Amino acid sequence: MPGTPSTGILRAGPFCFRCALGRCGIKALKREGDGATPAGILPLRCILYRRDRLNRPRTALPVRALRPIDGWCDAPGDANYNRPVRSAYGASHEQLWREDGLYDLIVVLGHNDAPRKARCGSAIFMHVARDGYAPTEGCIALARNDLSKLLPMCGPGSAVCVHL
User: Fold this and answer.
1) pTM for the whole structure
2) 52 Cβ neighbours under 8 A, 6+ residues apart
């Protein structure tokens, strides 16, 4: 239910969307693996989507179809920390091609990416929510239909403001 530490409301134009947040709520000082959604203004960088499950999203943001080899490095000591990598990567990484549907549609959020700092959080996305809006590992998750409604309103310069 909205109002618990791991749920929230995303407001965009005339819309209000229920969303899941990190299992540990929102933190101003995000750390790798802490289960929190970072507070702050998070620019929307680009969209990744499963072409085998969805049509290309309507948006003015850059869009790329996911491939089975796509991953995201979450190893703080690695040179590619908080960057996309190919699966079977030598350091710890998150697999983006998932069977559970959560990453069928991903908005890459600008957190700890310019510049990147080790252990300050990686792979912060907006993605499809689990049933019942179960908490995330630190991302923002919306119902697939709500995420699809939101994307046409987004373009270069769009951001999400996450506040405590």
Assistant:
1) 0.95
2) none
Bridge partner list, 159: 43
Q: With H, G, I as helix, E, B as strand and everything else as coil, classify residue 141.
A: strand
Q: 112, 73 in Cβ contact below 8 A?
A: no
The candidate with the shortest Cα–Cα distance to 114, out of 162, 59, 42, 61, is: 42
- Total residue length of the chain: 164
Q: Cα dihedral sign for 75, 78, 81, 87?
A: negative
Phi, psi of 79 (to 5 degrees): -60, -25
The helix, strand and coil proportions of the chain, stated in percent and rounded to the nearest 5, come to: 10, 35, 55
In whole angstroms, how large is the CA radius of gyration of the chain? 15
pLDDT digits (tens, 9 = 90+) for 12-60: 988 999 999 999 999 999 999 999 999 999 999 999 999 999 999 999 9
68 prior amide bond cis, ω within 30: no
The span from the CA of 35 to the CA of 45, in Å, is: 22
Degrees, nearest 5: CA angle 111-117-122: 45
Question: Sign of the CA dihedral 21, 51, 69, 64?
Answer: negative
The 8-class DSSP code of residue 71 comes to E
